[in-house]
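Interim report, section 4.2 (structural modelling).
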Amino acid sequence: MVNKSKNRFDKFACACCGFFTISEIHDICDVCYWEEDIYQEEHIFDNGGSNKVCLADAKQNMINFGACEIEFINFVRVPTTDEQVTD
Ligand SMILES: [Zn+2]
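Predicted structure of the assembly:
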């Protein structure tokens, strides 16, 4: 989080899906349901944090079925145009 830059809508990129959905630490991404967690983002194979799965698995899950965990597939949504803006 510390080294991340915000886009012009004042959002950080989600560590899991990469869309700009995050306003502050421990926000939950609406697009993939990953909870922002500094420890887990620095230790991508460690599942001991805010999220039950590690970041590496969460990213693979996002690719496989569109959410960081299978139980969240009904809670996520597609990214807005603003969330796809990187600058
Ligand atoms: Zn996300």
